[in-house]
């Protein structure tokens, strides 16, 4: 299980890195760590069995993310797992084989050759707050631009709703007998500006000068 953002459009996780540059680790098979295929998913052989390599073959890790394609709307989130887009961090966390060599600030992580589960970085992060914070920060830096874009869209939606409410309130005020001069003072604009903005919408004659 990885990290899922508030929008449920991004799921962060960890890929293991092998010496030949191939990635894996999405699933653990009977023979060890699974190897990814070109689609970013665990590859299988002709018999349908997972392709695996021993944990000792892992030389490092990279932060990854499966996320909703940009063209999908929130209403279609249920479909995203069938065709996620994949992001892979350019940074590699290198495996070291001695606890003394570990330096998280330098992206060096100790994973014992005598303990096969030591290469399960997500499992270690569950009990190592410093490591988890570093990994999550790397993942969140990837999704931050979309977070801001979503906030901008939300603000625009709020602005549109506020404008619609303002139009309704101005119409009610004018129907109740408030003049354009009075409405303008409340809004903070001139009488003429208020009339120019709302008179046509309200079906008022903009040439009238009695209010």
- Per DSSP E runs of 2 or more residues, the count of β-strands stands at 9
Q: Number of helical segments?
A: 4
Biggest sheet features: 9 strands, mixed
> Residue share in helices?
25-40%
Poorly predicted regions are none
Following the backbone from N to C, one meets helices and strands in this order, namely EEEEEEEEEHHHH
The shape is elongated
Explain this structure:
With 211 residues, this protein is α+β, with helices and mostly antiparallel strands. It has two domains: 3-151, no CATH class; 157-198. It has helices at residues 121-125, 129-175, 180-187, 191-198; strands at residues 3-4, 10-18, 23-29, 32-35, 52-53, 58-67, 85-88, 93-96, 108-110. Strands 1, 2, 3, 4, 5, 6, 7, 8 and 9 form a nine-stranded mixed β-sheet that branches. The longest helix is centred in the last third of the chain and has 47 residues, at 129-175.
Topology:
Blueprint: E1 3-4, E2 10-18, E3 23-29, E4 32-35, E5 52-53, E6 58-67, E7 85-88, E8 93-96, E9 108-110, H1 121-125, H2 129-175, H3 180-187, H4 191-198
Parallel strand pairs: 8-9
Antiparallel strand pairs: 1-2, 2-3, 2-6, 3-4, 4-5, 6-7, 6-8
Features:
9-stranded mixed beta sheet, alpha+beta, 32% helix, 211 residues, 4 helices
């Amino acid at each position: 299980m990885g990290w899922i953002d508030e929008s449920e459009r991004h799921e962060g996780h960890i890929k293991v890195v092998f010496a030949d540059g191939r990635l894996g680790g999405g699933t653990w098979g009977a023979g060890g760590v699974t190897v990814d295929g070109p689609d970013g998913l665990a590859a299988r052989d002709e018999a349908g069995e997972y392709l695996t390599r021993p944990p000792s073959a892992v030389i490092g890790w990279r932060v990854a993310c499966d996320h909703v394609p940009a063209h999908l709307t929130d209403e279609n989130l249920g479909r995203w797992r069938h065709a996620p887009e994949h992001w892979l961090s350019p940074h590699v966390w290198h495996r070291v084989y001695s606890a003394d060599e570990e330096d998280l600030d330098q992206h060096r992580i100790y994973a014992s050759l005598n303990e096969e589960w030591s290469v399960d970085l997500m499992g270690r992060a569950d009990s190592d707050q410093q490591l988890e914070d570093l990994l999550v920060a790397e993942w969140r830096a990837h999704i931050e631009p979309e977070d801001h874009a979503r906030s901008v869209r939300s603000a625009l939606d709020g602005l549109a709703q506020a404008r619609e409410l303002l139009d309704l309130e101005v119409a009610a005020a004018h129907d109740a007998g408030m003049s354009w001069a009075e409405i303008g003072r409340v809004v903070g604009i001139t009488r003429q500006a208020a009339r120019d903005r709302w008179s046509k919408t309200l079906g008022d004659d903009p040439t009238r000068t009695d209010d």
